[in-house]
Amino acid sequence: MAGKPRLTYLNGRGRMESIRWLLAAAGVEFEEVYLETKEQYDKLIKDGFLLFQQVPLVEIDGMKMVQTRAIMSYIAGKYNLHGNDLKERALIDMYVEGISDLMQMILMFPFSPPDAKEKNLESIKERATNRYFPVFEKVLKQHGQDFLVGNKFSWADVQLMEAILAVEENVPAVLSGFPQLQVFKSKMSNMPTIKKFLQPGSPRKPPPDAHYVETVLKVFKK
Amino acid sequence: LPAKPKLYYFDGRGKMESIRWLLAAAGVEFEEEFLETQDQYEKLLQGGSLLFQQVPMVEMDGMRMVQTRAILSYIAAKYNLYGKDLKERALIDMYAGGTDDLMGFILMFPFLSAEDKEKQHVSIVQKATSRYFPVYEKVLKDHGQDFLVGNNFSWADIHLLEALLMVEEKKSDVLSGFPQLLAFKARISSIPAIKKFLEPGSQRKPVPDDKYVETLRRVLRMYCDVKAN
């Protein structure tokens, strides 16, 4: 019988955080290994664990999975969070990919040079409020359902919830023009698995700080 | 809505090329509308057909699909190029993720300054030969089968062929240390639908030139100051 999935990454959000969210939302317990030194990372590569010499790495169901999207697709498929048919899956994928573009901006933000920080923050705010949030506000308004796709909880809802909270950490009043998203955020927060993940002591990682940035630069130094 | 899928993009490779490859390999005929002016692009935007205000956009099966990965996944699944179960799909996704990253280095190449182009050229060849090609070489060597996953033709094979040819365009002998990949390239290129796509007159787009760069910069008002990645 397979053990719990095992996640290998740094002790911080980065590209692994969306995977933590999805596993947690699906009610799946997992273990974590934290990379703290370059030596640990080099050893993983040398021992052949990392297909393309990169993390995230998720050991699950006998596979050593890499590539964030591949991992999340697998988890979503396995735990019935990827829609009921091809068309629902297509919608979920479109929404997730869009949100992921926004999350990419947030991912890179802590690594901005000091003179670009303000501009990058403004970009995140602009994109969130003009490009991404209006789409999901409209989707929810048009069908009036609790979830983005097919009237059923899916990967798209988890990803949107993660994005809303991540943007809010940087732009506190960002949801002020989005009543549907405010309701959505509240509903998602009350779903048992998500509620648990949002409580202290869960595997959720805190916002990236200077120490996290330093660790990333140290571990992945060429 | 049209019976054939309709692709909205520039008359050039960019992010749409992998979609053209996949449709062609699946034997699916498609139409294309090429963006040439700001007006055309504005019209698409105002018309509300670009979910996140971006192309590629593909009209197919009653949907206006955006986001390259979502489109590719849909087409792969629809035409049985996505493995027979979740685990095969996971492998295909992993392999396609790698070739996608590799092709990503080449995607921005035309927009770089001459000096950055030189550096990026070296970087592309180095990444291809030290990080990506060895992986696929080993996969093919280990199982000795014709295709990457599950002994069946899949999206992973099509995407890898596209990547191999793209890197070869940068350095013609880049596959010389990879006998499995050379054989793979010959084998997959000779599949009828792919062979047809590789012939002149197909919808495959040429290596991006200055005209393509100029069109994108003008229509999107972007990519005027791109740095190497």
Structural commentary:
The complex is a heterodimer of chains A (222) and B (229). By secondary structure, chain A is of the alpha+beta class. Chain A has two domains: 6-79 and 198-213, Glutaredoxin, CATH 3.40.30; 86-192, Glutathione S-transferase Yfyf (Class Pi), Chain A, domain 2, CATH 1.20.1050.10. Chain A has nine helices and four strands. Chain A has helices at 17-25, 38-46, 68-78, 86-108, 117-143, 155-170, 179-189, 192-197, 210-219, and strands at residues 6-10, 31-35, 57-60, 63-66. Chain A has a four-stranded mixed β-sheet with strand order 2-1-3-4. In chain A, helix 4 runs parallel beside helix 6 and helix 5 crosses helix 7. The longest helix of chain A has 27 residues, at 117-143. The radius of gyration of chain A is 18 Å and the shape is globular. By secondary structure, chain B is of the alpha+beta class. Chain B has helices spanning 17-25, 38-46, 68-78, 86-107, 114-143, 155-170, 179-189, 192-197, 210-220, and strands at 6-9, 31-34, 57-60, 63-66. The model of chain B has no long low-confidence stretch (mean pLDDT 95). The A-B interface holds A 51-53, 61, 63, 65-70, 73-74, 77-78, 86-87, 89-90, 93-94, 96-98, 101, 131-132, 135 and B 51-53, 61, 63, 65-70, 73-74, 77-78, 86-87, 89-90, 93-94, 96-98, 101, 131-132, 135.
Give me some keywords for this one.
heterodimer; A: 222 residues; alpha+beta; Glutaredoxin; Glutathione S-transferase Yfyf (Class Pi), Chain A, domain 2; 2 domains; four-stranded mixed beta sheet; 4 strands; globular; B: 229 residues
